[in-house]
Specification:
Layout: E1 6-9, H1 17-27, E2 34-39, H2 44-53, E3 58-65, E4 68-74
Parallel strand pairs: 1-2
Antiparallel strand pairs: 2-4, 3-4
Length: 76
């Protein structure tokens, strides 16, 4: 996995805050950089899938372990 430029910790936050924080972080990044987002929100998988589909960005990978969701989003 490519090293991420930014890590956004949204653990304990509910929708829509993980997306809001991720969008704010992406706005400050350069094209091609990777962002890692940590979330405990059960709805975050569907939220992130819908969000990246509505943007030009790429959800490169996601994983879920012990209630922690980790998303890798590449800025396009």
């Amino acid at each position: 996995m490519k090293t991420e430029a930014v890590v956004v910790d949204t653990k304990g936050l509910a929708c829509p805050m993980p997306i809001v924080k991720a969008k704010k972080a992406l706005d400050s990044m350069e094209t091609g950089q990777m962002m890692k987002v940590l979330s405990t929100d059960q709805g975050s998988l569907n939220d992130f899938r819908a969000w990246v589909k509505g943007t030009k960005h790429e959800l490169v990978q996601y994983e879920e372990k012990d209630g922690l969701f980790t998303f890798y989003v590449k800025k396009q």
